[in-house]
Amino acid sequence: MSSRRPVSNRTVGALVVLFATVTVLQVTVFVLSFNLGAEDGPQVTGHATGTSPAGIVGFFWIPINTCEVPLTTGWSLVSLCRNTSNTSIGSVMSGIDYRFIMRWNDQTQSFDVYSPLAASPPFTTMEFNTSYFVNLNSADTQIMMTGIEVPDINISMVQGWNGPGYPYYFNTTILKYFNATRHRYLMKWNASSQEFVIYSPRAAVPTFINISAGEGQMVNSYAVDQLSYNKTYLKG
Questions:
Q1: Structure confidence at residue 46 (pLDDT)
Q2: b/e for 29-66, b at 16 or more Cβ within 10 A?
Q3: pTM, two decimal places
Q4: H or E stretch at 79
Q5: pLDDT category, 162, cuts 50, 70, 90?
Q6: In 3D, which of 151, 136, 132 has the Cα closest to residue 79?
Q7: Closest CA to 21 of 33, 1, 7
Q8: Residue 232 has what pLDDT?
Q9: pLDDT tens figures, 3-21
Q10: 19: domain range?
Q11: Distance of CA 59 to the CA centre of its chain
Q12: Does a structural domain hold residue 43?
């Protein structure tokens, strides 16, 4: 006969301990989260599972400072939602079977194409302030990003098309950073139909106004400008 203890959530300062349902024969889940007050400081979550009546269970740690960037079969337009310490393509794309990566070149107004088979690729890193097209060889998967949160940033833009990243782990509305007096269009990629969708501030009914963590974008600017991100405002 098993006994059950209800879920409880206790907060003591910056320490949060969450206990889920526990039975005599099975520890269903145990989560211990440490957030030591610093936004980019140590944050870990522990999970334990097991079925031994003697109480022997497995235990492993999953970092909270991880976010997923979804990739779809075919082309995906993505941004990196963490500031990782190793920006090499080999590290960011580790374990992913892909064919090409494309990065918009603001100066030439065309795409630079990276192939893992190229002897001299035009770029070898993936940065959080840039959007990238990724073409998969395999089925849908994701990039697992670890690293610190990206702070408030300004991304320089040229007149014409630009490929700035959306570098945060949370969703927001583009209306909080798209400046209709200085920017003409913003495009995202529809991975299902494999085509761009376009936001115009002059449209009576815009096709979209939101952007999700991991999504990439293209912004058309009337003149040389900056795309400014205020993280607190974006989250509000």
A1: 44
A2: ebeeeebeeeeeeebeeeeeebeeeeeeeeeeeeeebe
A3: 0.75
A4: none
A5: very high
A6: 132
A7: 7
A8: 96
A9: 444 433 333 333 333 333 3
A10: 8-63
A11: 27
A12: yes
